[in-house]
Amino acid sequence: MSRKIIVLAVLPLIALVVGGGLYRSIAPVAGEAPAVAAVPPPVPVVADVVKSGDVPIYLSGVGTVIAYNTDIIRSQITGELTQVTFIEGQTVKAGDLLAQIDPRPYQAQLDQMVANRDRDQAQLANALANLGRYTDLEKKGFASAQLSDTQQAQVEQLKAAIKADEALIAQAEVQLSYTRLTSPIPGITGVRQLDVGNIIHPTDPNGLVVVTQVEPISLIFTLPETVLPQIQQQQQRTKRPLTVVAYSQDNKFKLDEGTLGLVNNEILQTTGSIQLKANFPNTAHRLWPGQLVNARLLVDTRHDALTVPTSVVQRGPKGTYAYVVKPDNTVEVRPIAVDQISDGQALITSGLQANERVVTDGQYKLQPGVRVVILTGRAAEEVKAQNAEQAPIP
Bridge partners of 84? Predict the structure, then answer.
């Protein structure tokens, strides 16, 4: 009984002590400031401003480069190759000598034809002299008219023979000229098919060499048939050839800039596309026959258009968006509409305004309302490299 009385007396004292401890732990001590939640540090990002200016509008397609001219150098006569004067891959001009065929048989034929003409000319001179004498004798009555007419016929016969000789000489000269194989076009030589000492024939399928003209050069590319009215409208508006730009397959290198030369006269029904041909000066020889390149046809220039770097454009379940940095250095998510992406720049048709700040790198750390610090210079480059390593794989 005494133990129960002691326990009942001690319990209120224990409750008082525990309650006081809890109150002390909860209530602030006099003179101490209340605890404040820690503010997260700002997220370092790289930003740029929305720019306004003229933006070219392109239609993009894939095409194949073709040579402006390609000639297989074949012989028109049969003979032995005595000299090859070109080097494989050499740049040649029109008229440059590529090879020499043994000219001696054809020179001998020419000499024979010249000799025949000289003989006939001598006979004609003698016949003309005789005709003059017979004519004088006929006037004096010492020769008959038949004798004069016969001599006149011989003169005409010799004149015709000389014309035939001249034709044969011209033919022999042509045959002799064929012993010199020259390039009919400016271009670049390919692989040599015959060596010195071989007999070349007109029927050789590969000829001596192929000369390909690469300056200028052409490009055949295709676009969907739905853009044909837009191309035709732009041609009528500008009254001059449209500009075509050729890029490498990865779009990293601009190869050349030329003009549209042809819109084909029919649509390919199997693919629903239209063929176009562009011509390029190709002075740097960056375009090569058979090369597969990307073609961009300039059809318009949009003035006062808004552009941002392509890294600004983010894609989500609801479409494209961008992180916009507000004046208080917090970010908001802004839906945007992108018209085209070219040369690392995205053309924005809605969602942004000129001179607004947008995040170009570091978006994967951001949430709406997060405060950011904008880095520049070397620090920005380091953040780009770091974010590239840490960014999740899409």
Answer: 99
pTM: 0.69
Tell me the C-alpha distance between 313 and 359, whole Å.
9
Q: How far from each other are the two terminal CA atoms of the chain, in whole angstroms?
A: 77
Q: Flag the least confident range among 3-7, 210-214, 361-365.
A: 3-7
- Pick one of 3.90.1150.10, 2.40.50.100, 3.40.720.10, 2.40.30.170 as the CATH number of 57-68+216-302: 2.40.30.170
Instruction: Write down the residue that tokens 């004096």 correspond to.
Output: 140
Structure tokens at 187: 């271009």
**CATH for 75-102+179-207, options being 3.40.50.720, 2.40.50.100, 3.40.50.360, 3.40.50.300:** 2.40.50.100
CATH code for the part of the protein at 108-175: 1.10.287.470
Could you say which DSSP state residue 312 is in? G
**Per-position b or e across 118-144, b if 16+ CB within 10 A of its CB:** eebeebbeebeeebeebeeebeeeebe
Residue 391, CA distances (Å) to 11, 311, 361 in order: 61, 13, 10
Bridge partners (DSSP) of residue 279 are 218, 259
